[in-house]
Design goal:
This protein is α+β, with helices and mostly antiparallel strands. It contains 14 helices and 19 strands. Bound molecules: flavin-adenine dinucleotide (FAD).
Length: about 400
């Protein structure tokens, strides 16, 4: 995005990428349809970035969800609004958009250099590993957009952290975001239900109350319902050492209704029949109750109803960052000026997930990455105009 803005402003731009091809994580995001932005009211959209809402506002205002849709359309990719308000390309993949985008950049005169890995920053640029060996490349201004720390095998391996810290740049440790969690499932539960979706349940955490579905994994829990609560649950685990999902397995029935239905059943009714007849629970949902409330069979109807409506599922830890959709942490805002320049390294700018912000899934991540890329490009353009960068 930055390359596109700078080339349009008449700057000479080269893009260096460590991997043999560009945009691998963008392509992976395309495997689940490429949720590129969100159609909700823009005032609401701007509040999805937690502590970074204020710092990201100007960049988002400069490239709104509507702008993203128009930009994609300009590259031949029509978009549509899914039932959840999320926006996707109609082709539900990223490759045509990425192909058209790289073609446009090349036509604008941008030099695209894959297999060029930035090894370290030098006073006037950077030292790169290239197919022809190590080379120092100098530039009037440089933008780092090296990504966060999730899915490192796609390229964003956060190997840059130590070098930048050495230069006095404050960087918050990377932590998994939009991630699953480990749960100490019994062997019997794991072998029977791993891979099974748990549909139409309500989840409560410090992040609020949402309804949706998640998946039982071999290690624990994952899926969209969990990701929306992942930051709150991860922070709780960090802070208190304990956290649990609080699940309402029968969101369509009130606690009183479930309790009254259980009360009416004859005392000798088996637990399976009680769960099915009073709350409609079968299969994985009934098994979850047995797994997480092992004394349920002996409990009285009020306690049984409470377990069905607010089942605690204790979490051990987030899944490793290698598996997370995104990462929290990165370069601290305090060291970045309004034009996205590192105050400790005039002439070096930053954008994307390598900055310390996080957001839920829903298209917010790509939107903010694209928007900060454009904002940083405007910062670079201004800085060069002021003559600060011209050597
Ligand atoms: C499975 C999955 C699905 C996702 N789905 C969505 C989605 O639907 N919607 C959404 O909004 N977000 C989604 N995301 C998140 C989104 O893809 C990322 O937030 C976004 O790609 C980050 O963009 P970025 O440019 O900051 O970093 P990246 O896309 O990670 O790009 C950084 C680039 O820098 C390169 N690089 C790193 N170090 C060096 C170096 N030293 N020298 C040279 N190059 C280097 C890397 O190879 C990489 O290509 C998904 C993520 C994953 C893992």
């Amino acid at each position: 995005m930055a390359a596109e803005v700078l080339a349009a402003a008449g700057r000479r731009v080269s893009v260096f990428e460590a991997m043999p091809t560009f945009g691998r994580k963008f392509l992976l995001a395309g495997k689940s349809g490429l949720n590129i932005t969100h159609s909700e009211d823009y005032g609401r959209f701007r509040t999805r970035f937690g502590a970074s809402n204020g710092r990201l506002a100007a960049a988002l205002d400069g490239f709104t969800p509507a702008d993203i849709r128009a930009w994609a359309e300009g590259l031949g990719t029509q978009t549509f609004v899914g039932s959840s308000g999320r926006v996707f390309p109609t082709v539900m993949k990223a490759s045509p958009l990425l192909r058209a985008w790289l073609k446009r950049l090349a036509e604008m005169g941008v030099t695209l250099l894959p297999r060029h890995r930035l090894l370290s920053l030098t006073p006037g640029g950077g030292l790169f590993e290239t197919p022809d060996g190590e080379r120092e490349i100098r530039a009037d201004a440089m933008l780092l957009a090296l990504g966060g720390a999730s899915w490192p095998r796609l390229g964003s391996d956060a190997a840059w952290v130590a070098g930048l810290r050495h230069q006095g740049i404050a960087i918050a440790d990377f932590r998994p975001a939009n991630c699953g969690f480990d749960v100490n499932w019994s062997d019997a539960f794991r072998s029977r239900f791993a891979g099974e979706p748990v549909k139409a349940v309500r989840l409560t955490s410090e992040a609020g109350v949402t309804q949706g579905e998640f998946v039982i994994s071999r290690h624990g829990v994952e899926g969209s319902l969990i990701y929306g609560h992942a930051a709150a649950l991860r922070d709780r685990l960090d802070r208190d050492g304990v956290a649990a999902l609080q699940l309402d397995l029968a969101p369509g029935r009130s606690l009183e209704r479930v309790a009254a239905a259980l009360e009416r059943l004859p005392a000798r009714t088996s637990l399976s029949n009680r769960l099915r007849r009073a709350a409609g629970l079968e299969g994985v949902k009934a098994a979850l109750v047995r797994e997480c409330a092992p004394a349920i069979a002996e409990a009285d109807p009020a306690e049984q109803a409470a377990a069905i409506k607010a089942l605690p599922v204790p979490l051990l830890r987030p899944r490793p960052i290698e598996e997370a959709i995104s990462s929290a942490g990165g370069i601290a805002w305090a060291g970045i000026d309004a034009g996205y320049m590192l105050t400790a390294r005039p002439g070096t700018f930053v954008a994307g997930e390598m900055i310390d912000w996080e957001a839920p899934t829903g298209g917010y991540l790509l939107t903010a990455c694209l928007a900060t890329g454009r904002a940083a490009a405007r910062g670079i353009d201004r800085w060069l105009d002021e003559g600060s960068g011209v050597r």
